[in-house]
Amino acid sequence: MTQQAVRWTADQVLALAPDTASRKAGSKLGAAGPWSEAGSSDEGTVWGLCRGSGSKPYQTVIDIADSTGPAYKCSCPSRKFPCKHALGLLLLWAGADGTVARGPAPDWAEQWIEGRRQRAGQKRTAGGASGASPSGDPEAARRRAERRAERITAGAAELEQRLADLLRGGLATAEQAGYGLWEETAARMVDAQAPGLATRVRELGAIPSSGPGWPVRLLEECALLHLLDQGWLRRERLPDGLAATVRSRVGLSGSADGPPIRDRWLVLAQYDTADTRLTTRRIWLYGAESGRTVLLLSYGAAGRAPGLALPVGLAFEAEVSSYPGAGQLRAALGEQFTPPAPAPIRPPGLTTLEAAVRYGEALRADPWLDSYPVTLDRVVPTPDGDAWQLADAEGDSALPLTPSAQSRPELWRLVALSGGAPVTVFGECGHRGFTPLTAWAEGAGEAVAMCSTS
Amino acid sequence: MNTTSASAGAPAGGSWEELVTVALLGTERRTPPGWAPGREAPVALLDAAAVETLRRRAGVRPARAAARPEPAPRDPRPPLPPAAARRLAMLLADRPGAGSGGRRGTAPDLMELLPQWLTLANARGFAAPPEALPALLDAARGRTDLRPAALAFAGPRALWLARLNQEWRFALRSSPGGGAALPGPEETERVQQLWQEGLFAERVALLSAIRAKEPATARELLATTWATERAEDRLMFLDSLRSGLCAADEPFLERALTDRSRNVRATAAELLSALPGSALAARMAARAGSYVSVDRTRGTPTIVVEAPHECDAGMERDGVVPKAPTGRGERSWWLGQLVEAAPLGAWPERFGGRTPEEIVALPVADDWQAELHAAWCRAAVRQRDPGWSRALLGSPSAPEAAGPGAVSLAERSKLLATLGAGERAEWVAGFIGTHGLSEAFQLLGVCAVPWAGPLGRAVVDALNIARDAGSYPWSFSGVMGLAERCLDPAEAVRLDGLTSVPDESENAAPGAGGYWAEAFQRLVTTLRLRAAMASELGAP
Q1: A352-449 sits in which CATH class?
Q2: Which domain of life is it from (chain B) (predicted)?
Q3: Which residue of A lies nearest to B493 if distances are taken between CA atoms?
């Protein structure tokens, strides 16, 4: 890249923050006061010295041009990633008030940048050479895979037995059995090396306490879990695509070996979900030329933000590769050719009816799909009693918002953005309703995120 | 969302409702619909449920649209420049309670800058970005001091939103008429209607709004219904005449002096006494004059005071409160009220053409000085008389903290408020130069923002002196906080030298140097931020 990376907006910078506290601390450092020797390069690196409470200022340097997302280095002792200094420096740089002038990097920054570039180069050449047999002995790998498949089969059979027992005695007993039963079963699935089954089992445990109508939801999820078990046990007889979907749903990750698709990708949404062990970041991309929507997943250990961060509303040119499975939207980010920059791309929108149909069709390829990404065009957020829906501006159908979307504060950002007028909304449409993730007002306004990163 | 009903081609396994019933009770008690012997009943049930679940999900259809909300009224103001919109989002994100308490470190307090940002944005006439409205409304809900500016900036769409969310109902209460703009004085019919039918708060708002534009129209409007208003309402309405008070209001106020309610009478008298040309003022001047005079028979001319012996009906009618508060002598209580209500312009004449300064300098016999000067202070504030205020304030560098007026800091800040901004700043700068910062806080509060050059420099110099003296910065946190909000951002360059950690001197408190450096860093950072804020909002 030879061009100066386009400056980000403060929102985009703040989207990188691992949590609210960092966002706040970073905002405060986004002013010239504590900074000295701040600068940036044409290649997309930013550096600066930040005065802290100690005598020696912290050295902060950020590489925003890296093909795998921004990389940070700071001499502060913070375990947050990126730390508040990196966020503050990026804000200062985004502020464009001249404090971060372009110029040559000081030695301490240059060393790190050089080191990174070299390592990245080596990795690329090394990766190209050893791609064929990552683990050395193919025969040993095959045996390992076989052993794991046997374990999963045993797990699936055991799970079938437990589901049958449950339905023999009746779901009404599930309420009394409590959460322990499911926790234990989930642990058995972990032992069986089927994390996908384990997750679904754990979710079953939460249904009896999820409010009115829980028996229906429990029956649905039990039935789909049974369908997944059966799919696994008979995977040899399934079409290739569906078999791959079953494998990935069971928890055999596979690798993103689909052909690379080069496109100009608009970042549609980025949001995190976290449990005690893991933070999962979902990033939806829309390819301006291919018209494809793909999902990038990135994980962070508890308390750490996932490594990948892409600001909503920006677009960049890159290659992505799909994971195996019919109708699979998950992909991996390959080489990035340009840094994310503002772009006037908007995904084409559907009516609410078309969106519902789209979800229904997607179920054919993946019956376990809870929702499907769609963009609704010209919908009006509309109160419906205590609930909210997105109603077609023309016509009389509407998609209700999911209960969780209704209870989030971002609901009101959406209502405010619309002001009773039609908006374009990207989100996930499923059997529980619609979850808005990003919205655009009428006219040429910017994308407004409707979900928070933390 | 609606799911397709089972009737559209019933599945082999029976209806969904049947499946749920069997699942609830268990296959030991019920047989699954369509179950063929030879298969395990629970498995057959799960198979059928899986098919039916997918049928239901794949057949999901949109619901019926509810009545769509009326669109929000258009906001004709231009949108914020992008950089200013981002700044606003950042200021609003800095909510109290979301971060670390305790020592503030070098980072600016963004929430403290929001009021200033709002004032600037309102002055420039920008519209709020719609997606920022929820955060703005939340901020306004939490801080009543922020409400008027926040709601003005938030504009009509915020009121539209407030109607949809219980938590923001305060916005509707704060804006009379539920958000509909108040009619202007020229819209006679709407004014009449709102005045006749409006809620009390709406009527007060209407009256104040009209008073601000056309004082006489407001007074006439009030006169039309005056006789039928309740006493406490009359009091509130009367209070609205305080703004734009002029000689033309006198007849109305004079009539209110005979009001049934004592509070209304007192307020009318107070307003009249603020009109030095009013008949009431003349009556008070005559009374006060008869009790305060100059005794020329002494070596130096001396003011002698003979306090009234009774509070007669005339005095009471003119608003003098007869009953003294506990601990005060009746006679001095009455005298204080008479002097306070008497026009200040009458005194030079009575004292042989002396200027206010000369009068204030005269000795006062029999310990009446404090009483007399205090009453003059209240008169100077009420009548907004800069000449007398100046005289009573005295020189800011007078050696004793008390000026010739022997007035408290609170009274001084009121006196200062009657002076022009420049003179006020200069006086406070002089005061700080002599007396330091420990007593300056209240006085700084009445100075115009941003502080004028000499005032800002006086504050910074005094802070620097306090640092050299070895005290801790938090002894001055009040002034520091004010400086962050009020110092001219252009002063930031002058402060750079103060942001380094000085060598520890012998008499300094341990670690104080570092804390001072931190405090000054925060001050500089905040000033830079304010400068950036202002430039992002563009030139006025």
Answers
A1: mainly beta
A2: Bacteria
A3: A33
